[in-house]
Amino acid sequence: LSRIGDELYLEPTENGLSLRAVNSSRSAFASFLFAPLFFQLYEPGSAGPDAELFRCKVHMKSFLGIFRSLPSLEKSVGKCLILLKPRASRLVLQLHCKYGVTKTHNLAFQECERLQAVFDTQRCASRLCAPARVLAEAVVHFPLTLAEVTLGTGPGGKISLRNYVEDEAEPSKTMVTELWLAEDEFQSVAVAPGSHITFCLKEFRGLLSFAEASNLPLTIHFDKPGRPVVFTLDDTVLEVHLVLATLSDLESNSRSPSTNGVSHLPAPSDDFADDLESYMVAMETSEGGSGGPPSPTFPLRTPQPAESDPQEQEEGAVPGTPPHKKFRSLFFGSVMTPGRPGPATTQEVLAEDSDGEC
Amino acid sequence: MPFSAQPPASGEGYALSASLDNARHLSSLLRAVHFQDHATCLATASGLRVTVEDAKCIQANAFIQAEIFQEFSVQEESVMFRISLSVLLDCLTIFGTSSLPGTSTALRMCYRGYGYPLMLFLEEGGVVTVCKINTQEPEELLDFDFCATKVVNKIILQSEGLREAFAELDMTSEVLQITMSPDKPYFRLSTFGNAGSAHLDYPRDSDLMEAFHCNQTQTNRYKISLLKPSTKALALSCKVSIRTDAQGFLSLQYMIRNEDGQICFVEYYCCPDENITEAEL
């Protein structure tokens, strides 16, 4: 998570403790959901009918500083207690170490709004699943400084990985690396032929090393360029999602994004067509909670029509995006209470996430 | 009267003359107190004491007993001079700092007296280096007046338990707060840094605790930048004794076992920091 953002969002839910991070340009979001069974004891606290479970964010560095040396932690720490004390404004992390020694850290936290990227893996046209090792071995061929990589599907069900080269780059001075993976290297392949996406490799590497270390297969859900790519890891007690924005194609202007089930969308007018943005608008105009099939873990947030123009929200949420990059920020759902399965009318709208800052 | 030791091999009368088969026995200890450039050396019949001070608040002493040396003679009752500790250490480790098994640097140290430089003869593998380090007028040293009768609280811990804690101290905190008490939390080290506060608690019945004699609950704060150098001494030591007196002065004594199994001591004395506003716990 520290590879993604500088702040760690802690959100206790009934389904477990969720740790999340987002990057400054809001083009990458990751969440780790630890089920109650992962813990020896899990008490998310009580939430009243109108209140939510308390959540907060802390500085990533401060949090990581407590778990500085993993090898020595493994040897000396028996258990770790995490307590959220809203009234004292402290997040308490207590490590019970050998020899009866107790290390107590009281971290200052900031209250924050819910951090949630909107995505739906069910709606992705393509899905790949591979052991993390296969992907790690593939990615090792690319230099550590490489920013973006393009994942594509080719003839014979082969999957390609290629470094992304900026259009403005001199062809004679750039090195292109491309490698192909056969279908049988993957555990499952269900892809739309001829599809490809370009995403940030740096942010992906972090998840990849975690997947390798935990020996979990990695699933990649992707759709058209411009739509976010979702990487997931699943375990009995852990669910990991990494959502990265993808580069949208300049040629996508004429494509009709019909897969999202909405009848018509505004035609993108400028070169930086953002299918994602259109998707957002489409969501806004859809009705209530039945706007689309809900994602298994992250239900779609349906903002009420009275919400401010998403265009405005979108631009305001992209403070740090360099102009030449065609990535746009992921849509972060307007802040709403987690919907209990039920009618949308019970949902409360909290202050909207106007400038992207919590 | 001061005893008259055997005259040095050269026959001349040196105020201080010493020989050491393994210079590391001296250099490793001196490194544990090397947080300032200059040190004051005091040689007496019992051995050599090297003192380093800072800010009139902290004093560290390294003791190398006469028995550690193969030869140690002091002409007068005591010999004292001020010297650059950085230069002294550079000379002692002139053949390198890596300790290959079986190799060691032999040292012969001679000091004629007031106004003369300190002569070092270092030999390793047949190669001899001669160093001459200028000495200065010794400055007055702090006297913390710390004696056994004035000790209020004392604990002795195995260094293993503190090493990691000291190495990982939150340096964004201005102070290190030490609480010693006959009741909980018994022995607590606290820091108050940018991220928040951190407390390290050692129970009195911990396996690490060799001795626990706390009579009164005391909480004192010390400037963390002054105490941080003591980490080096802690890393070398096997045991540490932590004592405070009624005024909150801190004494840290480290028992260090050298390569040959001989015992040496390093101690740190520190004044409590009075200029701190109430830190949150």
- Strand share of the residues of chain B? 35-45%
CATH architecture of the largest domain in chain B: Box
The poorly predicted ranges of chain A are 251-325, 332-349
**Secondary-structure element series of chain B:** EHEEEEEHEEEEEHEEEEEHHEEE
Going by helix content, strand content and strand pairing, the class of chain B is: mainly beta
- Helical coverage of chain A, percent range: 10-25%
Question: How would you describe this structure to a colleague?
Answer:
The complex is a heterodimer of chains A (358) and B (281). Chain A has helices spanning 60-66, 70-76, 132-139, 201-214, 275-285, 310-316, and strands at 7-13, 16-22, 28-34, 56-59, 77-85, 90-97, 102-108, 110-111, 126-131, 148-153, 159-163, 178-181, 188-190, 196-200, 217-222, 229-234, 238-244. By secondary structure, chain A is α+β, with helices and mostly antiparallel strands. Among the domains of chain A are: 7-111, Proliferating Cell Nuclear Antigen; 126-247, Box (Proliferating Cell Nuclear Antigen). In chain A, the strands form 3 sheets. A 10-stranded antiparallel sheet of chain A has the order 8-4-1-2-3-17-16-15-9-13. A 4-stranded antiparallel sheet of chain A has the order 12-11-10-14. A 3-stranded antiparallel sheet of chain A has the order 5-6-7. Residues 251-325 and 332-349 of chain A have low confidence and may be disordered. Chain B is mainly beta and 281 residues long. Chain B folds into 2 domains: 16-136, Box (Proliferating Cell Nuclear Antigen), CATH 3.70.10.10; 151-270, Proliferating Cell Nuclear Antigen, CATH 3.70.10.10. In chain B, the strands form 3 sheets. Chain B has a 10-stranded antiparallel sheet. In chain B, strands 5-1-7-8-9 form a 5-stranded antiparallel sheet, covered by helices on one side. In chain B, strands 14-13-12-16 form a 4-stranded antiparallel sheet. The radius of gyration of chain B is 20 Å and the shape is elongated. The relative contact order of chain B is 0.17. The A-B interface holds A 59, 61-62, 65, 68-69, 72, 76, 90-91, 99-108 and B 161, 164-165, 168, 170, 194-203, 205-208. Chain A: It is an enzyme of class 3 (hydrolase). Chain A: Keywords: DNA damage, Exonuclease, Hydrolase, Nuclease, Nucleus, Phosphoprotein.
